[in-house]
Amino acid sequence: MNMNLRSNQKLVFIHVPKAAGSTCINLIKTNYGKKNVFTFPRKPAWASKPIIRYLYDEWVTKKIVNKKKIIAGHKQFQFYKNIKSQILFLAVVRDPVKRIISSYNYILSGGVAETRQQLRSGVNAQKKHRIYYEKWLSVGFDPDSLKNTLKSCRQFRKRSQNFQCQYIAGVKRFDDVLGVFEKNDFIVGTQENFSGFLNYIHENFGWDISNVPARHAVKGNYQEKYYNDTDLIEELESLNQEDRKLYSFILDNGLFNNALYDYSVDFHLDHFKK
């Protein structure tokens, strides 16, 4: 369906933390060319205060985002609400309990595949990764207990309570997510059926997905010990009842796609000019 909106179309990948986002961003850059994709960098330290963060986001939007057709990174749906373009949102969600456990483990490793012992001792741990780890410690993160972290670390708990609904739709209830879906164009997959998501994108946009790296680089089932704590799992499920509805809705359908416009005219690789 050609709605003559092609010159004003954007492709936006919303990178939900710990839900196959890095793999998707690498694929986007590989297929469309790095120079054609804007990915959000980490905010500079001076942009930590709310008013400065708001002004920084306004500047990024005006100077960069409005001029780019393909955008990806850790920006929630709300960020794009005032952008006057026809946007196709891509996103991947994950089993909410697994995502939270993965987030906890990610902080334990300093944001990279370093061992907990290295970070605690400082041996062979790069400075930026120690800073990342120590920053979380300073706000109540407990490296010995996910359960305690949920109680003592407000920032982590906020990211552990129906966070995916908020991230991809800007709302906290699943019913409201459906309302956002009705008014916007989304293609949403799940990490647990990641191959199905990629195959759909390949078939409809021509992406080369032949070199997708293997998932779950961490050796062994590191999540098993958390699942053995039934009280912890019950608490995580209680905190994520709306995210569970969202995840089950996407997973049960294999994929969610409600795009009303023919974005392939702009973003299929047969037509896209690098």
Topology:
Elements: E1 9-14, H1 21-32, E2 37-39, H2 50-63, E3 70-73, E4 86-93, H3 96-108, H4 116-121, H5 127-138, H6 146-152, H7 154-158, H8 163-169, H9 174-183, E5 185-190, H10 194-205, H11 224-227, H12 230-239, H13 241-252, E6 256-257, H14 264-267
Parallel strand pairs: 1-3, 1-4, 2-3, 4-5
Antiparallel strand pairs: 5-6
Helix pairs in contact: 8-9
> End-to-end span in angstroms?
23 Å
Q: Per the principal axes of the C-alpha atoms, what is the gross shape?
A: globular
Q: How many strands?
A: 6
* SSE succession: EHEHEEHHHHHHHEHHHHEH
Reported CATH architecture: 3-Layer(aba) Sandwich
Q: Report strand %.
A: 5-15%
Weakly predicted, low-confidence segments: 1-5, 113-119
User: What number is the mean pLDDT?
Assistant: 85
Descriptive report:
The model is unreliable at 1-5 and 113-119 (pLDDT under 50). The chain starts with 8 loop residues before the first strand and ends in a 7-residue tail after the last helix. It has a single domain, classed as Rossmann fold, CATH 3.40.50. It is of the alpha/beta class and 274 residues long. It is built from 14 helices and six strands.
